[in-house]
Predict the structure.
Amino acid sequence: SAIGLGLLTATLRPNTCSSSYSPGSPGGSHFEYIITDKKGKNHNVGLIQLNRPKALNALCDGLITELNQALEAFEKDPAVGAIVLTGGEKAFAAGADIKEMQNQRFQDCYSTGFLSHWDHITRVKKPVIAAVNGYALGGGCELAMMCDIIYAGEKAQFAQPEILLGTIPGAGGTQRLTRAVGKSLAMEMVLTGDRISAQEAKEAGLVSKIFPVEKLVDEAIRCAEKIASNSKIISAMAKESVNAAFEMTLTEGNKLEKKLFYSTFATDDRKEGMTAFVEKRKANFKDQ
Ligand code: CAA
């Protein structure tokens, strides 16, 4: 069942999305632009579906605000061990809301810190899997790249088409795409705006797996369930350590990894995991 998060009102949205209002979910979530649910055997997977289909899930300010609220709620929910973020079959997200940006001036962007709340998802400790069907363009591609794992549906398309609008990626596209696929392809995508297919994205290392469109979300949930069955605290350490690889030198990163590895020995779950192996039984992690 939907988890009925955040009774948001329009007053909480400084920049309410204009034309393409899509009503809330039949499942009962109180959000306007997203649907939330809990999946998995023990409801241990938080599912967030971007749900602004008439605008191909363009990421207006209100949508990002709701996304952040849902992420926070799942982050605090002790039952949830991993999160899946998805969109619709036609679009994961077609980018930042161009209609919202059209009349913005430099002064507005600078003084309001435009898009600065987008990267909240990168500070979530629980692993987040993006399940991308259809278009992941501009900010949509950037949002997927802020997640920890990307699964793609067979018809997914990724692009950074900002150049065609006379601007450049503004939510990490030039940085995360380059780290994911290397300079030549990133440069080509950012300079031409050309889209790449799911297959090309997999070959380039942007996504880890491809599934038929209708199986994608279930497969992402299955992966999330697997992650959620491990210790949450140890998963958070593993995620922190992998992410450090994008921020640090090899020496610094290895040092951090070693400290986090040693830190696992301060937890009950490390003891339980190794004891369960020795006793030939399944580990029973308590997130302690
Ligand atoms: N912002 C606002 N509205 C959008 C949108 C966006 N990024 N993308 C699509 N829409 C709207 C369209 O305006 C249209 O609304 P109306 O019915 O009110 O006209 C509706 O969604 C359906 O779109 P189309 O009619 O264009 O659908 P299509 O199937 O013909 O084309 C598409 C699909 C190729 C994805 C096309 O919509 C498109 O090119 N969208 C824009 C993609 C883009 O440039 N994204 C980058 C945005 S900039 C950015 O993201 C900056 C950043 O780095 C953060």
User: Anything to note?
Assistant: Residues 19-20, 55-56, 58, 94-99, 115, 135, 137-139, 142, 161-162, 165, 169-171, 173 surround acetoacetyl-coenzyme A (CB under 6 Å). The chain has a mean pLDDT of 92.
